[in-house]
Amino acid sequence: MNTASSIASSASIDRREFVARLLALCPNALVVTGLGSPTYDVFASGDSDRYFYLWGAMGGSTSVALGLALAQRDRPVLAITGDGEQLMGIGSLATAGAQQLPNLSVVVLDNGHFGETGMQRSHSSLGTRLAQVARACGIEQAAEIYSLDGVEALAARINARAGLNFAQVHVKADELPRALPSRDGVFVKNRFRQALGFASL
User: Which residues belong to any copy of the Thiamine pyrophosphate enzyme TPP-binding domain (predicted)?
Assistant: First the structure.
């Protein structure tokens, strides 16, 4: 068994508990969610007009969060996504590394599986180490988190806006009940714009 497979099989973090704790500690963060389970996790923690849920945009969460961080320099911006979604948008890590936005953080909830398509094993359980990929893209603050104890330090880095962050959080490969936010893209967009002080379109 390779190292990535060993980590995936021994992951013990409850994803819903981790996300709920993280968001409670980052009350001012603007949050962009990745397709599928990360969206359900964020919504299950309690809805907010600061949350921008992506539907049908697999691979886009880090890029969307990066653009938001460019436009909202005074706010912490947090992408919460999964390993499969980040793997599809792997090039966004290189762009983030090139931009070095100090208010941008990317949190990957890594269960080593493609949850939306039947729990097939993903590349992160077959040898790809996402935190190492992030470091190779120039993201120096790239950490792997193996327990709930890591949430406080991660939240402190997010809130400080003192440097680009990446966290690969090793979560259990559970199939949890889906908590579904609105799928009305216009509603989600306009609510988020209003939270930023802009008029609806």
Answer: 54-148
